[in-house]
Amino acid sequence: MKTAPSLNTGLPWAVLRLHRAALTVWGAFLLAAVGTLVWETGITADSVREGMFTCARPDGRCRVEALVSFGGGISWASTLVYYSFFAVAAFAGGALTGRELEAGTAQLAWTQSVSPTRWLAAKLAVPALLLVAGGTVFVLVFRWAWAANRDLMGDDWTFNDVFAARGPALVAYGLCGLGVGALAGVVVRRALPAPAVSCGVMYLVNHNLEVHREDLWPMGGSAVHPESHYWPMHLVETGIVLGVAGLATGAAFLVLRRRTA
Fold first, then answer.
1. Rounded to whole angstroms, how far apart are CA atoms 254 and 177?
2. Along the 261 residues of the chain, how does pLDDT read in single tens digits?
3. Residue 39 belongs to a domain
4. Which domain holds residue 80?
5. Is 221 helix (H, G, I), strand (E, B) or coil?
6. Left (φ > 0), alpha (ψ -120 to 50) or beta: where does 189 sit?
7. Domain presence at residue 8
8. According to the 3-state scheme, what is the secondary structure of 27-46?
9. Measured between alpha carbons, how far is residue 118 from residues 14, 43, 109 in Å?
10. By C-alpha distance, which of 251, 215, 216, 259 is closest to 236?
């Protein structure tokens, strides 16, 4: 007689097998982003800096061209990883929850001695672990790349992607996308509308935080936030995003329990 799959073994492995294509793409995407940072910092930086110092143009454009040349790859990598929470929200709302609820495969799993709560927990545990691990690696590499070549990175630490990629806010946005997507999936129960709803909610969360970011910490009478305010502002935003993630995840479990009671 077969026993029910354990939350620590059967269900997580089933999630990995079922969504291995999407998880492989996510892993390759992060690997490419980290590789870009390493290449730009370890290989490109020296040649760009040498070209800037040997440039004889008197109009100051040498530095501008150097910043564009070096910062382009790093900027694209940080921007794409930062806004990848939209892809996470769409995946969680569509493939991870909405599609299985719409097709009835989730209900079939529930008849095999797997409770709805355990089903959703396993669905979220695997991608959450990968988001935390991958996001942490990217943040550490980005901080190294940012600190190693500040003369080529510019001085504006308030850019949205730079602000997030230098700390845990990047990981928080990914977890928030996962939680919001899961909630959209269990509420809408449709593979196509759920990703649209989850991405729309994440846009509102992110847009409002970016617009009001300067209000997250007192300026202390000055006209512009000094760079010393980075960590207070960053940690406040991280806390807000994690709060939304927790509320959305908790609501997803509550809705699922009520609908399957």
1. 18
2. 344 444 445 676 777 777 778 888 888 999 999 999 998 887 777 777 776 666 666 656 766 776 676 777 788 899 999 999 999 999 999 888 988 888 888 888 788 778 889 889 988 998 999 999 999 999 999 999 888 877 776 667 888 888 999 999 999 999 999 999 999 999 999 988 999 999 999 999 999 999 999 888 887 666 687 778 899 999 999 999 999 999 999 999 999 999 887
3. yes
4. 26-215+229-260
5. coil
6. left
7. no
8. HHHHHHHHHHHHHHHHHHHH
9. 13, 47, 10
10. 216
Question: Is residue 20 a part of any domain in this protein?
Answer: no
* Radius of gyration for the alpha carbons in the chain, expressed in angstroms and rounded: 22
> Please, are residues 35 and 138 in contact by the beta-carbon 8 Å criterion?
no
N-terminal to C-terminal alpha carbon distance within the chain: 27
CB atoms within 10 A of CB 234: 21
* Helices first, then strands: H and E counts in the chain: 13, 0
The three-state secondary structure class of 6 is: coil
Token couple for 251 = 């609501």
Q: Is 60 contained in some domain?
A: yes
Cα dist. 7→151, 181, 233, 244 in Å? 49, 21, 37, 25
Number of domains observed in the structure of the chain = 1
